[in-house]
Design goal:
The complex is a heterodimer of chains A (about 260) and B (about 270).
Chain A (H helix, E strand, L loop, with lengths): L16 E4 L5 H14 L1 H4 L3 E5 L1 H6 L5 H10 L3 E7 L5 H4 L5 E3 L1 H9 L40 E3 L8 E4 L4 E3 L8 E4 L3 E7 L2 E4 L9 E6 L3 E4 L2 E4 L12 E6 L2 E6 L1
Parallel strand pairs in A: 1-2, 2-3, 3-4, 5-7, 6-8, 7-9, 8-10, 9-11, 10-12
Antiparallel strand pairs in A: 11-14, 12-13, 14-15
Helix pairs in contact in A: 1-4
Chain B lengths: L2 E6 L7 H14 L4 E5 L7 H5 L9 H5 L5 H4 L1 E2 L6 E4 L12 H13 L4 E5 L6 H8 L3 E6 L3 H17 L1 H4 L6 E9 L1 H5 L6 H8 L3 E6 L2 H9 L10 H13 L16 H6 L1
Parallel strand pairs in B: 1-5, 1-6, 2-4, 2-5, 6-7, 7-8
Antiparallel strand pairs in B: 3-4
Helix pairs in contact in B: 1-12
The chains are: A alpha/beta (about 260), B alpha/beta (about 270).
Chain lengths: ~260, ~270
């Protein structure tokens, strides 16, 4: 039995529901959370959630970490990790669960070429601190609250090193996507030039999103975190029109 | 109207300085008042290729820091009327350049009635390269027929679209030209190099010219003479064609086919 792999330590991408706090008022949180859970009690039972503290952090307010965790657990949700920009802030230290740095994803997406930065609206940032949101919106999952938004259309080539992110919508690229370029969307991706870089659709967890391309030469394709590299893409599909989607959690590539 | 053209590539050693020297010389030869600026602060080379290294007194950094006047800094070419060289500093680094400083220099050049400002970019995608391309109206992207060079060119094209003044001011985008250098049709035929079609397909920008690999390029660089002045050489003729295309003339591309030389010519050619 010595050849058996006992454990494996690997990186992976998983989709979690995030619980975004717009207030530090525990009574309001308790009330709103009760409302949300009541809408679909079965759906939320024992569901792991990521606590998104970005708004509170931006407002510079604290929260009673212990009470918050108790409250979330009371509503049958399982807080697993808290997302915050600065892991050493007092706000972060008040939460007794693991922390991840929320800035990481956002800054990674807007970091490289700011060409498309206009298309990366920082919607998650608070409108401003002087104007605290009066009504509390405990937005839960994007899957639950899906708002129709115009697709992001890119009519020139996406060059190596550039990143384009279509938040909450489809991404349409009329030109090519160069090697080393990355195109990301919360919904479907359509590429009418050759796809030579990376394409990631459904990055916020939309497992029914798909990638459509005219010439599949991608370095990597991913649907809702399930990815494949070029070398595992069948030879006969390369350079051909293809679609990529999830068939029961299995990343499937088929000619168009 | 002054036109500012950056010669850039991302990758080093692909022929930016050779191209800058020949393009500037070619434009001046056709009667346009032209200045070629070496942006490679700390790794000054253009003066060598232009053959004026012994005449450098002041440099771009002095000009940016307002320690010297434009008149003192510009070196007038001895061969071609209307051609001026603005050398880089060898003792400083790229941090010595500022956008405001460069803007002042560009403004002075425009007021001195230059028709063309050719900016010889340093390699890389860092500050020096970004400074060189910031004020560009047009860009000549120099690429060798190999994958890493093409990918770096793709990267620099992306930076042109996002970091140039035109992009930041939401003006008409920088006009892009592809110049393939060190093209060796024989090696392309043998599959050792990318073909013109491959490169154009990968970069998707209009082709300005193909400069064949030629010993005269190195000979001229060593002699401090822009290769475009060597009218006998294929590289010189190819640069001359590129100038015509830059000025709007439609010219068929040459030097794309492997030469059909006889055995002896191949031995001694």
């Amino acid at each position: 039995m010595s050849s058996t792999i006992g454990v494996e330590l690997k990186g992976g991408m998983y989709t979690f529901m995030s619980l975004k706090l717009h207030t530090n008022d525990m009574t309001v949180i308790d009330e709103k959370l009760a409302d949300k859970v009541l809408q679909a009690p079965g759906f939320f039972k024992d569901t792991p959630v990521v606590i998104d503290l970005s708004v509170l952090e931006d407002q510079g307010v604290d929260i009673d970490g212990k009470a918050l965790l108790e409250c979330i657990r009371r509503h049958t949700l399982v807080p697993i990790v808290a997302s915050i920009g600065d892991r050493t802030s007092p706000l972060a230290l008040s939460i007794a669960i693991p922390l991840i740095e929320s800035g990481a994803r956002r800054s990674a997406l807007s970091q490289e070429e700011p060409t498309q930065s206009a298309d990366l609206p920082d919607k998650e940032a608070p409108s401003n601190t002087q104007n605290p949101i009066p009504d509390v919106d405990l937005s839960v999952s994007r899957e639950v609250e899906y708002v129709v938004k115009a697709p992001l259309l890119i009519d020139k080539p996406v060059r190596s090193g550039q990143q384009v992110y279509a938040r909450d919508t489809d991404l349409i690229v009329m030109g090519q996507v160069g090697p080393g370029a990355e195109i990301i969307a919360d919904n479907n991706i359509h590429i009418y030039g050759p796809l030579r870089g990376r394409a990631l659709c459904g990055v916020s967890g939309n497992t029914s999103s798909r990638i459509f391309c005219q010439s599949l030469e991608a370095e990597l394709v991913s649907v809702a975190g399930n990815y494949r590299m070029l070398e595992t893409i069948p030879e006969e599909l390369r350079g051909k029109p293809a679609q990529i989607w999830l068939d029961k959690d299995r990343l499937t590539i088929e000619p168009l | 109207m002054t036109k500012t053209i950056v010669v850039t590539s991302g990758k080093g050693g692909v022929g930016k300085t050779t191209t800058s020297a020949s393009i500037a010389t070619g434009l001046a030869k056709r009667g346009f008042k032209t200045v070629v600026i070496d942006f490679d602060v700390g790794l000054r080379n253009l003066d060598l290729v232009m053959g004026c290294e012994r005449r450098v007194v002041y440099d771009l950094v002095n000009l940016v820091n307002q320690e010297a006047s434009l008149h003192q800094t510009l070196i007038k070419d001895k061969r071609i009327e209307n051609l001026y060289i603005l050398p880089a500093s060898q003792t400083r680094d790229k941090d010595a350049l500022t956008i405001e400083g460069i803007a002042r220099v560009m403004h002075k050049l425009k007021k001195s009635d230059f028709d063309y400002i050719i900016c010889d970019s340093p390699a890389g995608i860092e500050k020096g390269a970004k400074m060189a391309l910031y004020f560009a109206d047009e860009a000549i992207v120099t690429t060798n027929p190999e994958v890493s060079s093409v990918r770096d060119s793709d990267r620099i094209l992306g930076i042109l679209q996002s970091e140039s003044k035109r992009s930041k001011m939401n003006e008409e985008p920088v006009k892009e030209h592809l110049l393939i250098t060190r093209y060796n049709p024989t090696r392309v035929k043998d599959g050792q190099m990318l073909s013109v079609d491959d490169i154009v397909d990968l970069l998707a920008i209009p082709l300005l010219g193909i400069i064949p690999e030629s010993p005269s390029v190195l000979d001229c660089s060593n002699a401090g003479k822009p290769v475009i002045l060597d009218e006998e050489s294929e590289a010189g003729q190819a640069y001359s064609d590129a100038i015509d295309r830059l000025l709007g003339e439609a010219k068929p591309h040459r030097f794309m086919e492997a030469p059909k030389k006889g055995f002896l010519a191949r031995l001694f050619g």
